[in-house]
Amino acid sequence: MTTPTETLEFQSEARQLLQLMIHSIYSNKDTFLRELVSNASDALDKLRLATYRDKDLDADTGDLHIEIETDPAARTLTVRDNGIGMSREEVVTLIGTIAKSGTAEFLRKLKESQDAAASQDLIGQFGVGFYASFMVADQVTLVTRKAGETEGVRWESAGEGTYTIGPAEDAPQGTSVTLHLKPEDAEDNLFDYTSPAKVREIVKRYSDFLTWPIRMAPLSTPEPVEAAEGEAEAEPAAKPELETVNSMKALWARSQSEVTEEEYAEFYKHVSHDWSGPLETVRLNAEGTFEYQALLFIPSRAPMDLFMRERKRGVQLYVKRVFIMDDCEELVPEYLRFIKGVVDAADLSLNVSREILQQDRQIQLIRKRLVKKILATVKSLQSDKPESYTTFWSEFGKAVKEGLLSDPDNRNAILEICAFDSTHDADKQTSLREYVARMKDGQQHIYYLTGESRQAIENSPHMEALAAKGYEVLILTDPIDEMWVDSVTDFDEKQFQSIAKGQVDLDTEEEKKATEAAREIQQKDYEPLLTWLTTTLEATVKEVRLSTRLTTSPACIVGDTYDLTPNLEKMYRAMGQPLPPIKRILELNPDHPLVTGLRTAHTERPEDESLPETAELLYSMALLAEGGDLPDPSRFIKLLATRLEKTL
């Protein structure tokens, strides 16, 4: 039974993207052809892979190729392939909707963008593929038949919000896309895309490296010879044989000296569907026990789905130049999920599956080499191309730091390429190597504090003594920072030390000796108050003690060495993970008038009913000072208002 022809609406997000394409906010319109040819190449890859895996698939693989045909009279350009093709459902899914994570985020950012240049960047970041056709065409017709199926599909749209879809009789295997081109407009960079020379130039520039032949009619064809009077009518001229217009040399198989930066950039755009060039190219050629070639790229900006659960990751896997799979997760770890490119292995089976790859020793060894090479490349950016490194870290640093938890084998290499905010310079991040070089004589620890913002950390009471003595503190505000600092103990034999946990003693041995007697007297003087406060606040604190880290604040709250930080506790609770109540330590500044006054009052009036309320206020102020949440804000306000009233 033949499926009827229907008129359907584009998904709302797709409609908005189509309008962007139609109104041509992207200046380089030549790239529409790269997108169509890239899609055709993918379809050929998928067909060859499908026939390897399903020997019974009824598909013609005798002459897989891409063909481009121009018709100046009709003002059309057609790109066709004899690849995998699409079913009706796939056409609706792949073209009528945007089946890509990050769509909502893309459109939100696009609405926020006020200028065309920023909009172009966003489109490049998102990657619009097929939709690019509407930059140059006012109508697009697609005819396709999936390999192994009998009925073809015809899709057509002017990009105005609806499309028609119906059966296509006698459709050949594969897909053809015919663009009904807009009038030429040089001022708007809209060239004559029916010109064979122009089309060849675009193919050579963007798609020369594709491993499939891209064919076109010869540029010049012999003129038909008129028959002389009395002679028989000449035979009609045969259709000229098509020419292959790309070199078909896999870029990763060519020596580096043969490949230009422009060719690398175009290949990156092909594998990443990004419209902007890469930040850095990474090449690896392994020979010996097992052979493989890798051509990888560090993008110049993060994809919008970098931190989305449903994102795709990984590089393309080839075996002996045969495409095996996209997004091969086994080749790069999760924290390097932004890396794009190709790995071509010589000794794997063509029928390799994801399950086999997870156990394959060769793949694991390739992965180790790739990770080391990528990290070494970033390290070289850090020293040789600081601007590129700064771009890399701002785009991908949060993801890379995940490797401090998941990849202990490369932890030191990851720490070497990390950059952090610190109190040394508000405008420039620091590496750990630079931090260690600036450490004071005798300093044994790399000090840090985690929190929600730089401002909150800089104003934290925990910073007071370190700031007073000129110690540099790392300012860690990324959520991942809360996690890795508990797993990573040291860098370059210097221990990491949270200034909000455990005891922080900044005095030198000489200073300790000089103040030892005074401290013992102070501790003895405050012992009754500390004991009373520990009992009074036992519902919320595990201990009250004197502090060495405070200079101006009356009190602060610190954790034991192995306690969860308040931020990490919040994160776990937000994820629905049950946690027992975590009591922390209240530290008092013995030189603050509020604390000395409380000690005097407790000594002189131990039964005063207002003293427990003062203790509660002191604890609440310390909690607020570190950005914590009060358990009962209304009670705090009531107590504070009562005290203020008595001062008037």
From TrEMBL:
It is found in: Cytoplasm. Residues 571-648 are annotated as: C. Keywords: ATP-binding, Chaperone, Cytoplasm, Nucleotide-binding, Stress response. One of its GO terms (cellular component) is cytoplasm. SUPFAM superfamilies: ATPase domain of HSP90 chaperone/DNA topoisomerase II/histidine kinase, HSP90 C-terminal domain, Ribosomal protein S5 domain 2-like. ATP binds at residues 35, 39, 81, 86, 100-102, 125-130, 175, 354. Molecular chaperone. Has ATPase activity. PANTHER family: HEAT SHOCK PROTEIN 90 FAMILY MEMBER (PTHR11528). This is Chaperone protein HtpG. It comes from Crossiella cryophila. The lineage of its organism: Bacteria, Bacillati, Actinomycetota, Actinomycetes, Pseudonocardiales.
